[in-house]
UniProtKB/TrEMBL annotation:
Pfam family, one: p450
Protein name in the entry: Cytochrome P450 family 39 subfamily A member 1
InterPro entries, alphabetized: CYP450_sterol_14alpha_dmase (IPR050529), Cyt_P450 (IPR001128), Cyt_P450_E_grp-IV (IPR002403), Cyt_P450_sf (IPR036396)
Assigned keywords, A-Z: Endoplasmic reticulum, Heme, Iron, Lipid metabolism, Metal-binding, Microsome, Steroid metabolism
Protein's cellular compartments: Microsome membrane
Main subcellular localisation: membrane
Length: 433
């Protein structure tokens, strides 16, 4: 006698399959949560976050969640996840950055959410591609002023060298002329506070201020200076990104003799060989020196920000996983730039790969995400490239430069912003004759 009819077996089988697929679809990505409640994988993650992400990708696959300090961060590393990150209506930029903005700039949630869109549009208008070249004159003037202070020759730590050139220029141009202090004591104070603020930025964006009194003091000092001039917290922190990118670009150029030689020959052919003149740099001159721009972009590719982030507002499907609402979705430009599918020989500094990019039409190479992407892509990107380009031209026009130390490795401690050097590197500069 038959115990169960074939029809019932088929129906039961069908139901089991349905349940299987439903469960599969509802399953979250593999989650690394460590063994300590709330802190989760915090200790392991904090030791070397960039390496942690890459090891987790190899072990768990292209989508995985890391639970740290009460927060679920879901990393996407391949096409499908990246598309969700960039295009889904269910993920939100403002809510992902609101808390760090509050912690680092004391801008309350409601004020930020009300003003953010307007500020974004204002910044794009002010320093987007349409008005960009109106800054070349002022940038050149301000940089000449700072270069003058370096004298005819010297030796300096490379980070200090670029910081002393670029901080005053950024502050005076992006905020208002004269805002950067002019007397020695105040300048020293500015550098001290900016450095303390910057070094604590990553902790400061994640922890209550009362736990970081030294950092909090520097934050207040800077906020008081910028009080009436803050278009966005990112704008003044970006002075740091610009100077770090200039550090690495000069470092890469000076440690690749044939690139260095071609750049100096290019500069001499456009501006002449003498290093003494206060040259003016026009839009046309910049177009004649594409290799410098390629070097900056290649540097940005290799030293890109560790992460950019969005908040999941409604559950989203990525591969076979459902990422729940409330998760922070994380994308690492740094690791994306090491995918050989987009960038063959990804670890090699190859400025010529940028020949293929349609920079005339303001397009980068596919897979390049140092400035983020989509609606909230960095509105300061063209200004940043212009400033660094002019800075490198003026330095290499005025001085014969060489590195006295090997270029340091990048530090493995930072996720936010561009990668910082692990150690020091000295530059020697002598005025060209
Ligand atoms: C080389 C230097 C720079 C790098 C690598 C950089 C990178 C970035 C990245 C990755 C983002 C997030 C984008 C996203 O989540 O999709 C961003 C946002 C932003 N950047 Fe930059 N940036 C740089 C320079 C600048 C400069 C010079 C300015 C201003 C003058 C600036 C202003 C901003 C602002 C205001 C935002 C936030 C956009 C918003 O809130 O809508 N950045 N930047």
């Amino acid at each position: 006698m038959e115990l169960i009819s074939p029809t019932v077996i088929i129906i039961l089988g069908f139901l089991a399959l349905l349940l299987f697929f439903q469960r599969k679809n509802l399953r979250g990505p593999p989650c690394i949560r460590g063994w300590i409640p709330w802190i989760g994988a915090g200790f392991e993650f904090g030791k070397a976050p960039l390496e942690f992400i890459e090891k987790a990708r190899i072990k768990y696959g292209p989508v995985f969640t890391v639970f740290v300090m009460g927060t679920r961060m879901t990393f996407v590393t391949e096409e499908e996840g990246i598309n969700v990150f960039l295009k889904s209506k269910e993920v939100n930029f403002e809510l992902a950055v609101q808390k760090p903005v509050y912690r680092t700039a004391s801008i309350p949630k409601n004020t930020f959410l009300t003003l953010h869109e307007k500020l974004n549009v204002t910044i794009k208008g002010k320093i987007g591609t349409v008005n960009l070249y109106q800054f070349t004159g002022q940038l050149t003037e301000e940089l000449h002023e700072q270069l003058e202070k370096l004298g005819t020759h010297g030796t300096m730590e490379l980070s200090n060298f670029v910081r002393h050139l670029l901080y005053p220029v950024s502050v005076n141009i992006l905020f208002q002329k004269g805002l950067f202090p002019t007397n020695e004591r105040k300048i020293r104070e500015f550098h001290q506070h900016f450095q303390a603020y910057d070094e604590g930025f990553e902790y400061g964006s994640q922890m209550p201020e009362c736990l970081l009194s030294h950092w909090s003091k520097s934050k207040k000092w800077l906020l008081a200076l910028f009080e009436k001039n803050i278009p966005d917290i990112k704008t003044y922190r970006s002075a740091k990104d610009n100077s770090v990118v200039t550090f690495w670009t000069l470092g890469f150029v000076l440690s690749h003799p044939s690139v260095h030689k071609t750049i100096v020959e290019g500069i001499s052919s456009v501006f002449g060989t003498a290093g003494k003149d206060k040259i003016k740099v026009s839009e046309d001159d910049l177009k004649k020196l594409p290799l410098i721009r390629w070097c900056i972009l290649e540097t940005l590719r290799l030293r890109a920000p560790g992460i950019i982030t969005r908040k999941v507002m409604k559950p989203v499907q990525i591969l076979n996983y459902t990422v729940p609402s409330g998760d922070l979705l994380m994308l690492s430009p740094f690791w994306l730039h090491r995918n050989p599918k987009y960038f063959p020989e990804p670890e090699v500094f190859k400025p010529e790969r940028w020949k293929k990019a349609n920079l005339e039409k303001n397009a980068f190479l596919d897979g390049f995400m140092a400035f983020g992407s989509g609606k909230y892509q960095c509105p300061g990107r063209w200004f940043a490239l212009l400033q660094i380009q002019i800075c490198i031209i003026l330095i290499l026009y005025k001085y014969d430069c060489s590195l006295l130390d090997p270029l340091p490795k990048q530090s493995s401690l930072h996720l936010v912003g561009v990668q910082q050097p692990e150690g020091q590197c000295h530059i020697e500069f002598k005025q060209r004759k």
